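Can you make up a polypeptide sequence alongside its tokenized fold?
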Amino acid sequence: MREKRIALGIVLASLLLVGSAFIPTGYDVLFADEPIMLDELVEYEDGYELDGEIGMTYVSSLENVVWPFLLLGLLFEEGVDIEPAATEELDIDVEDLHYQYEMMMLQSKIKAEYKAREFMEEKPELNLSGFYPAYLEPDWKYKNNIEVTDILVGVDGVELESYEQLDQLILAKEPDEKTVLTVMRDGKRKDIEVRTYPERDYYNNTFLGMYVEEVFELVEDERIAFNIEEIGGPSAGLMLTLTLIEKMTEESLLKGNKVAGTGTIEMDGFVGPIGGVKQKVIGADLAGYEYFLVPEDNEYGNNEEIARETVEEEGLAIKLIPIGSLEEAIAELKKLPEKK
């Protein structure tokens, strides 16, 4: 009888072990990967050839992995970090999260084209069509009233014309105050009644409980094309812009060098911080890139600090170039030595 119980216990333990292998751990595994060369992915008809190499860095990830893959990632990948699953932390479906990433990449392409054409002293026609929800506080009572595909176009009957205007409309309110949001949903206007977040933010300001980003529409230049698929997020903005400028101008910024980097790009030229900078620096170094453009530390993030710690701790050869704007990035690239 005792032997049967032991055998049954072993069978049950084995079944639990095998079964647990298919249960998500609630963690994402982030690891380094080689940058994507942008020469063929960013097109400018009849443009100049790149004199050097420019790489768009990104982070490979396994989302909400089962534990065998988590262990394999730790054992065999470079620059691994394990973080709480974004879908769990944000309380969002993976399909909705990926939609947000796609929207961020789309807007990055628009901003990159606009800034590159502006650099060439063009005046591209740009319009603000609204704001998309980039992040919703997981505990905001009204988060389920908002869909990721919504485009915010009005607040309390006021049509939105700028981010600054939206900001002022919300700052004028008290926490937990009734607010009517007008959104475009499935091609139709819809009013949604919510309340502002019940607490003030870090700066003692009232906020909605969701953070939004502009949705721009640009009259595109038919000579420009971005052939980038299956990669989302806003972090490619800077490198897309620099690649276009390199192809538009006869004078080379690269001068034969291999340059990778990361950072968002804004309409005023500001370069913003991103996630996964550790993995991006390691991936660029492994691929033989000589220089890495990294957003400088500011109130929004500490990318530069993380990058310097990574270079020191991992013993990397890549040289870091901290920048805060597109103008600074161009100035720093002009300082690079010409490589024969």
About this structure: Residues 32-60+114-123+222-334 form a domain with the Ribosomal Protein S5; domain 2 fold (CATH 3.30.230). Confidence is low (pLDDT under 50) at residues 4-23, 65-76.
